[in-house]
Amino acid sequence: MTHSPHLFRLPTEILLAIAGLLDMKSLLHFKLTCKRLVAIVENSVSLRYVLALAARGLCNGRPSSITVAARYELLKMYSEAWRMAEWTEHVTMDLPYPHEVPYVSGGMLVLPILGMGRIKSFAVQRIPSALRGITAQHWVIELDFFVAHFMLDAAQDLLAVVPQHDTRSILLRSLATGYPHPLSVNKAILRLEESQNASGGNSKQDVCGDYLGLMTWNGDRLDDRLAIWNWKTGERLVNMPMKLENIDDAIFSFIDDHHFVVPALSCESPGRYNPLGAPPVVRSYVLSVTDALSKIHTLRFFPDITARGGAPPLGHFHADPATRLFGIQVEAVAAATGRDTVQELLVPISALTRAGCALPRLRRATVRHEPVLGRSLAYAARATRLCHAGSLGAPDVCLQRAGLVHAGCCEGTSLPPEKLPAALRAVEAAQLRIAVCGGALLVFEHAKENGNLPRKLHILAF
Prior knowledge:
By secondary structure, the protein is of the alpha+beta class. It has 7 helices and 25 strands.
């Protein structure tokens, strides 16, 4: 005599409620248990939508009047549009001269514009997507001072700037208006210690959720520190000395809303508290090629800026922060040859935060100067080309599956001419640089006589 498990005696409505509480991996196991549970999942649009999102590295967007069934259909159309490289909207943006390299954050493309050789304003372009319910919008933020450094989190409408005339202050502005950010209760200003100044450069400043971090230095450069604030309350949470041999290695990056990563300090070990202002070390990793390097020049971190903590971006669905990759780049001298080399690796963000996970080995990389895309976007572009080439199923397009999570770049252009707008079909391939970011193809067109001068940006939206 056999007895049915108690689970299968439950009514279908209860089983649906249970399945709705499961994550993607658990839902797949749930579905594979028996034919009845397979039928329950297959007959539920909401459960199929959850699985479809997870398979594409996406998650559901903010609540709206669009039903789950409608979002599921839009998701399938969106995936097919990327698979066939069939963009639905073409937005052209003239790039004012002179300007710095563009930044992409939370579905916004932000272009720093120079005046007298220094940043004076920002051009902002919302990247549209008809299938994700996002409309295009363009505006310019004019400031009455020059900017030394800045940080972005477009999903939280945050533009944090360090004025050129006062590098001991961080002004918290709204990216939409340029006015003081309404969520900051500290007069939208963060103050550094009197002896400290804000540092500039790669991996020197970052924003994630409620937290803003910045590397600082004093006048004689003997006291480099990492300062982290809750930018909404103004409370400074970390004031951490960075005692490193090479000042260029005084860097950091947020991993998520609860963790950040720095180069190892000699006084630290997992579980030990540094009494000089640093929080306890949760986990340490040893880079796998350090024995092959005789001298390290610089170390850089490249978090995936298109999917970070904080408020979710606009749209019916967006990139899942849990699926992003974290980049580490080492510029050093190879012990065997005595020549400069660049080693880099991509590691899933989950491997950095999960106990017992080892980092993959670094690999040698060919890195060239990227005046059009900038260092961060170009790095993510190389990473996507290596990790996700052809994953859309379109042989001529090197893109990530959904085009949302990682930037992707092709040498010149590998898009077939018929997939380009008519305005670009006569442009030589050498004049185009293509990146995938924010759910769109970003095609930078630069002048034929000056390859370092992008003059237009074509956004091919899906």
